[in-house]
## 1
Amino acid sequence: MKQILFRNIRQLVQVRTQQPDGPLRGKELQELPVLEDAWLLVEDDRIADFGQMDNCPDIEGTQIDANGQLLMPAWCDSHTHLVFATSREEEFVDRINGLSYTEIAAKGGGILNSAKKLAAMSEEELFQKAKQRIEEISGMGTGAVEIKSGYGLSLKSELKMLRVIKRLRRESNLAIKSTFLGAHALPAAYKENREGYIHLIIEEMLPEIEAENLADYIDVFCEKGFFSPEETARILSSGRDYGLKAKVHTNQFNSLGGIQTAIDHQAISVDHLEVMNDEEIAALQNSNTIATLLPTAPFFLNDPYAPARALIDANVPVALASDYNPGSSPSGNMPLVIALACIKMRMLPTEAINAATINGAFAMEVAHEVGSIQKGKKANLILTKPIPSLAYIPYAFGSNLIDQVMINGNWVS
Ligand code: NIG
Ligand code: FE
C-alpha cells in the first residue's frame, strides 16, 4: 500500500466527518469547516485519515511538510463543453467590433461554426485535443468534471463526441460525467425543419446513446433562437425514457420559462441564470434543482451576472462551474470562476469554495466520492502555496496560488 502523509498543514479546508444530506443552501453555504495545524494521510487513491498535529501518526511512507500551506479538495467543475475542435477568437474580435453572441450565432457562427469544424476532425484528433484540456484543468486544481456533447448536431458527430468523453473517462484519473446536448442548436441542414431535428434526437440519437452507454445526463439549450420550453420538455421526457436525468441551459439571455420546465422534469441543475425574475427564484426555492452559475461566461460576453445573492438568500442550492467552451468561456480556470463569483456576484469566499467543491459534486452526483475532505473519499487534493488565508484565493485573482494537485492519490505533473 502506498502512503503519503501531509504534516503541518496550516489549514485543512472543507473537512467533514459527515456527508451533507444534499447540496448546501442558505446559511449552510457560508460554513466551510477548517482544521488548523493539521495532518492528512493518503493511502493509495483515498483519504485514509486526518487530524491535528498534536496527534500526528508516524508512518513509513512519503512525508510532505506543508508549512504555511492550505490543503483542500480539488474543484468539481459540473458544467463544461471541453470536447471541441478549435478555438473561435475571430468571433471574439467580431464582438469587440459590436456584434452580439446571438447575432453571431444567427449568421452561422457560434455553435454551428464549432459543429462544422468538429465534423471535419477525426475522433482521434478530437480526443488528443480534449485530453490536453483535461491536463490543463487538472493542473489548475480540477479533479472532477462534467463534459457535454453538442458540437456534433448529427448522429455521427454527436456519437463521436460522446465516444471521446467515454475514452477520456477511461484514460484519465478525473471523475468524469457525460451529458448529451444534441439540442444545443438547430443544425444548418434542419433550418426549415425543426421537427425533423427533434425527431432525429429522440428517435435516432437517444437509442444509440443508450445502446453504447454514452451519457449520464441530457441537456437542452432553452433560449430564444435555440429551443423553446415546449421543445425542451419533449426532449427531456424522451431522455428520461432512456435513463438520462435532466440538466438545462436556461435564462442565459432571456427568461422564457425554461426554469419551470426543468423543475417539472426533476432536473439535477439549471445552468447560467444570468436573467432571472422573482417567480423563477421562488420556483427554485421549492425544488431540489441546483442553480449552477457560470460567471466566466458573462465576464467573457460582457453580460450581467446571475443574481447569486438573491438565490442564496432564497435558500436555493448554488454551484459554480467554468462552462469551458470555445464561444462563451474559453477557460476552465476554476480559481478565476471563484474570484468572479466573489467580485462580481458578491458571494463570500467560503460560499464560493463550497459551491465549487461539494455543491459541484452534488451537481454531478459524485458527492459520495469527491468534493470534501472526508475519510474514504478519493484523494483529490489541492496543496496551495503558502498563503495567509482562504479569502486570499479569490482576492489575489491573478496569481497562481496552487503548488501541487493530487488526483486519485497521484500527483498531477
Ligand atoms: O454554455 N449557451 C450555450 N452553450 C454554451 C456556449 C456554446 C458556444 O458558444 O460554443 C454556453 O455558454
Ligand atoms: Fe454551457
## 2
Amino acid sequence: MAERTLSIIKPDAVSKNVIGEIIKRFESAQLKIVAIQMRHLTKKEAEAFYDVHRERPFFDSLATFMSSGPVVAMVLEGENAVAKNRTLMGATDPKKADKGTIRADFAGSIEANAVHGSDSSASAAVEIPFFFSRLDLVR
Ligand code: CMP
C-alpha cells in the first residue's frame, strides 16, 4: 500500500545548494514527489509546525533556524514512505547518522540537520495539511 510522508529540506541545506542532490535520493529510492513548494516560513509558522516540541529547551532556537531562510516542503509517496524516508535521512544528530544518509552527508548539527521527515503516518496526516491542501496533491 502506497503511503505518504512530509519531507522538508531545511534552510541549511537550501543555502548549501543541495536541493537537487537530496531530491535525487528520494527518487532513487522509488519515492514519488506528489506535491512540492518552496517558502520562507515566518517564526510563528515555524513554531506552529513544531508545536509538539513547544516545551523542549531547543524550541525557540529551532523556530528561529527554520525561519532563517527558505525551505522546500514535499509530499513523498511510496511503499513504506515514512520508514523509507527516515532511513534515507539518518539519525537526527548527524554525528550519529549512518554513513551515506542525507544527514551524514549534508547536515552540520543536531539543529541544522538538513531535512525533516514525518515520524509516523499519524504525524504525516497532521504535517501534510500544514503545507498542502487536497487540491495540491497530484493524483
Ligand atoms: P526534526 O526531525 O525536524 O525534529 C525536531 C527538530 O528539532 C530536529 O529535527 C532538529 O532540527 C531540532 N533539534 C534541535 N536540537 C535537538 C535535540 N537536542 N534533539 C532533537 N531535535 C533537536
## 3
Amino acid sequence: MADTQFDLVVIGSGPGGYVAAIRAAQLGLRTACVEMRKTLGGTCLNIGCIPSKALLTASEKYEEAKHSLASFGVKVAGVELDLPTMMKHKDGVVAANVGGVEFLFKKNKVTRFIGKGSIEAAGVVKVTKEDGSAETVTTKNILIATGSDVMPLPGVAIDEKKIVSSTGALDLDKVPGRLVVIGGGVIGLELGSVWQRLGAQVTVVEFLDRILPGMDAEVSKQSQRILGKQGLAFKLGTKVTSATVKGETVTLTVEPAKGGSAETLEADIVLVAIGRRPYTAGLGLDTVGVALDNRGRVVTDHHFRTNVPGIWAIGDVIAGPMLAHKAEEEGVVAAEVMAGQSGHINYDAIPGVVYTWPEIASVGKTEEQLKEAGIAYKVGKFPFTANGRARAMQVTEGFVKVLADAKTDKLLGAHIIGANAGDMIEELGLAIEFGASSEDVARTSHAHPTLTEAIKEACLAVDGRPIHI
Ligand code: FAD
Ligand code: NAI
C-alpha cells in the first residue's frame, strides 16, 4: 500500500506546486503531490507557457522564411505551412517537459497521487480518483498550489471549437480566416500573433483604451504600433456584449466601453482572453475556513501561510502576477520556511515577458507607478536603431528604457521592447535584486557587439551621457 503519512502534501503540480515539492524533498520533508490532470506540470507545461512558446517559435520561423530571409540574401522558394507538423512539434515539447517533471519526482522521491485533492481538515487530504474511489492521506502541512482557470465572459460561451480559450487556441486544426481575440493582454497578443503569422486576419477587441494595461504606457503604445504594422487590428475601448454561433460563423455584438451604439463583428474563431481567476473549486476551503479575498484568491502572509495553521498557498491561486516563475519562487520560499529556514521574495525583481515579436519585457516599476507613488525618477532610453548588432540582425525596432531614483540613482524599473528582450531583462532584474544604481550597470563592460550594449547605453543615458546616440 502507498505511503499515506507525509510532512507535506502539495495540491497541484504546476510550476508552483512541483517546484515546492522538489525543494521540500531536497530539504528532507516526506513529500507528496496530488494532481488531478493525467500529466504533471500544471497550466504552464500542459496548456500555457510551454505549448504557447513552441507555437510562437514555430510561427516565427514560418514568418521569417516567408518574409525576412530574402533581405539577408537567403532565397527560399515554396515556403508552405504544415500545421499538423507544427502541432506535433508543440505536443512533443509538452510531452518532454511533463515527462521531465515525472522524472524529477522519482529522482527526489516525491510521491505522486493522481486524483482531485480536497482538504478534509488541517492535516488531512482526500484524493478522489476519476473512477470515484478515494483515499485519505495525512500530513503535517498542506500546500495549496491549484493555480488558475480561464475567466469566463458573460454572453460569450466558450465551446473550445468556435469560441475558444487559450487552451483551444493552442490546438486549432486549421488557420482561421478571421480570428477575433477578446482581450488585449498577454494571451491575446501572443496567440493572436501566432495565428496572424500563420495567415489569419486578427482583430483584438480590448475593453480599455490601451493594450497590455499593466505595462509601462510608453512600451504598450510602441507594442501596439509595431504589432499593428505586422497586421494585427485593434479595437480599443470596446466591449463585447454577446456572441452567436451560426454554422461556421461567430457574430459578436460589440459596443463602445463608455456606451454608444452597438455594431457586429464576424469571425471564424473567437478567442476569449480576458484574464484568469484563481482555481479553488471543490478544494473544501470553506469547510476548513481558509480565508479568500474579494477576488477569490487565497489570502496568505508573506511566508505563504493561510489563516489556518498547517495550510499554505502559493502561485496563481494567491495575489500577485500570474507568472510561472513567480509561482516557483513562492513554492521554494514556502518549502524552506516549512523546513525551518527563512525566505524572502522581492516582487520588484520579478520580470514579466510578452513573447511577441519583438518581445516585450519589464521588471520593477513603471513610470505610471512611480508618478502615482510620488517618487522622483530619471529616465534613460536607448533605441535599437543605434545598436550595431541589432542592425546586423535586422532587429532595430524597439528600445531599452530604465528608470532610476532621481536622488540615489538606484534602479527602480526597466522596460525593453526588442528582439530577445525576455533574455535581456534578466540583467536588469539582477541589478534591481542587488540594489544596483544605473551607474553600476553603465560602468559594467558589455560584450561588443551585443544587443545588451543598448542596456548599458540606456543606463548611461540616465546621466545624459550615452556614447552612441
Ligand atoms: P497551475 O500551473 O495552474 O497548476 C495548478 C495545477 O493544479 C493544475 O495542474 C491543476 O490541474 C491542479 N489542480 C487544481 N485543483 C486541484 C485539485 N483540487 N486537486 C488536484 N489537482 C488540482 N507564465 C509565465 O511566466 N510565462 C509564460 O510564458 C506564460 N505563458 C502562459 C500562456 C498561457 C496560454 C497561459 C494560460 C498561461 C501562461 N502563463 C505564463 C501563466 C502560467 O501558466 C501560470 O502563472 C502558472 O502556471 C501558475 O502556476 P501554478 O503552479 O500556480 O498553477
Ligand atoms: P491579461 O490580464 O493579461 O489581459 C486581459 C485583457 O483583457 C486586459 O487587457 C483587460 O483589460 C482585457 N479585458 C478584460 N475584460 C474584458 C472584456 N470584457 N472585453 C474586452 N477586454 C477585456 O489576461 P490574459 O491575457 O487572459 O492572461 C492571463 C494570465 O496569464 C495573465 O495574468 C498573464 O500573466 C498570464 N500569462 C503570461 C504570459 C507570459 O508571461 N508571457 C503569457 C500568457 C499568459
## 4
Amino acid sequence: MKRLNSQLQQDGAPLELILLIRTLLAACKEISFRVSQGALAGVLGSTLSENVQGETQKKLDVISNQILKDILSESGYVKAISSEEEEGVVPCSEDGNYLVSFDPLDGSSNTEINSLIGTIFSIAHAPQWMEANDPSAFLQPGTQMVAAGYVLYGPSTMLAMTTGRGTHLYTLDKTHGGFLLTKDNIQVPEQTSEFAINTSNARHWEQPIQDYINDLLAGSDGPRGKDYNMRWVAAMVGDIHRVLCRGGIFMYPFDKRNPEKPGKLRLLYEANPMAFLMEQAGGVASTGEGRIMEVMPTEIHQRVPVIIGSKEEVETCVSKYQ
Ligand code: F6P
C-alpha cells in the first residue's frame, strides 16, 4: 500500500509542506494514542474551565491542543497557529512559512461515550509581511488553503486529506506508525437519500432550512418523491466522514437560539477544511448564500452556516435560499 509521503509527492506538494504535514500528523498519532487509553490514563471528563467560545473544555481538548501546539511551534515550519482552544493566535517561528488552524478535538463530548472524535486542520501560506503574532494574516478566504484534512479517531484512526489534487483516505497502521493510502480520489455520489442535521433546533432555524427539511421529512409523499434517512454523530468529523464515504448532506444552519452565536461551526478550522475536502471529492459546500471557501473571514473564531455534501442535494437545499 502506498505511504502518505509518496502520495503527497505524486500530488506535487512542496517538500516543506510535506514535512509540515508529517509533523502535524505526528501530533495526531500521539492524540490517537491518548484517546485510545481513555479512562485508563485518566484523560476523560471535563476541566473546570471554558474555552473562548464559552464551551466547557474536556481534558482531552486541552491535552490535544497542547500536543499540537508544542509540536508545531517547535517545527520551524509554522509562523503562527489559530486553534479553537486559544483566544488569540499563537506565534511560533518568525521564519515559518505556514499558518495552521485547527480544532484539536472536534466532537469532544463524544469522548464520554467512546464514540467518534477527530482533529480538523487547514494550512495556508504565511504572508511575508506578517509578524507571527498578527491575527490579520489568518483572515484569508478558504480558497487560499494549500492543504486541509482531518484525523478521525474511530475503530481505526483515519486521515482524510487534500492538497488540492483530490481527496484521499489513509489508515494509520499502528504496527509501524505510518498512514497508508486506503482510498484515493474519493468521489462523493451526486445524489443521496441521507441527511444529517440536529432537528431539535428546528424551531429556531431560518425559513429556507425549515422548508427544505419539511420536504425531506415528507418522503415519498412529498415533493422529493422518495424517503430519506437521518444520521447524526454530533461530531462534524464523523458526519463528514460518512458523507465523504457514501454521500449525504450535512447541515448546521444559522439559528435564532442565541443572537450572539448565530450558528455553531467555525469557518477557519471546521467549515473551510471540510469544504476543501468535499469540493475535491466532487461535492459542494455552501453557506446557503455562497461558497464557504469564498467567505472573507473577519475574525479568527468566526462562525458560518454550513450546508455540505452530495452535489445535487446541496444545490436543492441552497435553491430554497433564492
Ligand atoms: O464543534 C461543534 C460540534 O461538536 C460539531 O462537531 C458537531 O457537528 C456539532 O457541534 C454538534 O452540535 P449539537 O450539539 O447541536 O449536536
